[in-house]
Amino acid sequence: PTHLSRQSSYNLYTSSLTRQLPSFFFLFFSPFFKFNDHRCHVHSSSTQKLLQFSQSTPQTQNLLLHLSKIPIWVSLSTPRPQMGRRQNDPDPSRFAYLTLLVLGAISCALVYAFLSVLLNPNAARSGFETETSVAVREEKSEIEGGGGGCCRGIEGLELWGAAVKWGSEFKFNSSEECCQACKAMCTGNDGPCLCDTWVFCGNREACGSKFGECWLKKQKDTFLPDRQEGGSPAMWTSGIIFGKGQGIIGLETEYGTLHIKLFPDCAPHSVAYILELLTLRHCAGCQFYRAEGRGQSWDSEGNHIRNAPFGPPFAVIQGTLEAQGVPLRDIPTEVCPTIRRGSVAWVGSGPEFFISLANHQEWKQTYTVFGSVLPEDMGIAERIAQLPTKPDVWNNINVSVLEKSVPLVLRRMKASHVDLNAHVTSN
Q1: Contact between residue 88 and residue 82 where contact means Cβ atoms under 8 Å apart
Q2: Would you tell me the crossing angle of helices 44-53 and 58-69 to the nearest 10 degrees?
Q3: Where are the chain's structural domains?
Q4: Which of 371, 374, 357 is nearest to 420 (CA)?
Q5: Strand, coil or helix: 88
Q6: Reported CATH class of domain 134-422
Q7: What is the pLDDT of residues 290-326, one digit of tens each?
Q8: Contacts of 237 (CB under 8 A, 6+ apart)
Q9: Average pLDDT over residues 185-195
Q10: Does position 180 have pLDDT exceeding 70, yes or no?
């Protein structure tokens, strides 16, 4: 046959013939064989032609007649035949290769981990961060992931302070870029930032030649930033940034102090209101009045339990930060991330607020989050949630109101060099 290479050899076997026939025998008779699944039979017509063609003896003719009735199996011996397999047939060599590949990958990973620890011991220590730093970082990253990012300021506000970058020589196209430039100088883990205040001239008409100026400054006290009351503040937008261990306030209660990391870059108006409250010696009227635990709907880490209802109870403690002597004003809606365990957020435009004891995915982008309780203080919030309550109905919603409200006092906390920012996320 034409599809067979010349280098192939052919072995013919029959049930009656036990010895190997010469290869020239098959080559001679090949035009007279019909192939079907490696089995060939001699055509009777071809036999007649062969009889006519050859001047054979009667013995030869008799042999050819017998051969025409005998099925012949053809074995094609080609170099390295590639036999196909079914998809469900296991290939032993494949498993061997996969095993070697997996063992090699595991070995490389172990060697890499060992060398990483050996050559960079600081990386190993950084892996064992405190629970506080991990929680703060997660919340901060989530806040920045929603609502257009966290690099906001207050328009019409000009903050003073010692300049670390002169705006006349430092210009950007947006306030966000100016804010990011200040943040870039606040990446250390060893205390206050080199820049904690940024001031941007963003009103093209009012700024004139000053448009785009970005002044980076340093405050003596970020809780009491130096304001410019006169002049033309309308053309300026300003914001503050808290460094590592900075921007921590305390909500003092009879059950303990809840330490809260503030998010001025995500909720600048909200934080400005909180800083105003800190100037008061007391916070008459500030209190918790609603308390609802996690019930059977959320676990101890705040994760929702499958098939459980989303309340009631709603896993929150709620109160107000409306202090006597402070003018009540509506706080604009700012960054509204997903509510997580520890999130501190306004109800509407404030001053009603709540602290969440659980992760509320169902409340996403609903409430302005301006801070987060440090994880180590969540036990205090859980304790308040277990205080005696009485049922009430608000707008057709069943709630639990404390039988006795819990008074609050706002305190500024001393700066700590602990990486508290890593715990709190300004979603």
Answers
A1: no
A2: 160
A3: 9-77, 94-128, 134-422
A4: 374
A5: coil
A6: mainly beta
A7: 999 999 999 999 999 999 999 899 999 999 998 877 7
A8: 153, 154, 155, 156, 157, 175, 199, 200, 201, 202
A9: 77
A10: yes
CA-only gyration radius of the chain, Å:
42
Q: Shortest CA distance to 420 belongs to which of 259, 209, 220?
A: 259
**Is 344 in contact with 260 (CB distance < 8 Å)?**
yes
Q: How far apart are CA 177 and CA 165, in angstroms?
A: 14
Strand ranges in 323-421 using DSSP code E only, listed in sequence order: 343-346, 352-356, 369-373, 389-394, 397-407, 409-412
Task: Name the DSSP class of 187.
Answer: -
**Residue 217 contacts residue 195 (beta carbons within 8 Å):** yes
- Residue 396 burial class via C-beta count within 10 angstroms: exposed 0-12, middle 13-18, buried 19 and up: exposed
- The whole-model pTM stands at 0.64
Residue with the two structure tokens 């609802």: 292
Q: Which of 364, 319, 316, 303 is nearest to 339 (CA)?
A: 364
Output 208 or 39, whichever has higher pLDDT.
208
Which tokens go with 225? Answer: 């930033």
Q: How many residues does the chain have?
A: 427
State the residue for tokens 């261990």. Answer: 245
Return the H-helix or E-strand segment holding 36. strand 33-36
Between CA 97 and CA 93 the distance in angstroms is 6
Q: Is the pLDDT of residue 169 over 70?
A: yes
Q: How far apart are CA 126 and CA 66, in angstroms?
A: 89
Cβ–Cβ under 8 Å, residues 68 and 41: yes
Average pLDDT over residues 91-115: 69
Residues in CB range of 78: below 8 A, 6 or more apart = 5, 7, 8
Three-state DSSP class for 295?
coil
* Ramachandran sector of residue 342 (left: φ over 0; alpha: ψ -120 to 50; beta: rest): left
Beta-carbon-side half-sphere exposure of residue 73 (alpha carbons within 13 Å):
9
Calpha distance 2→140 (Å, rounded): 75
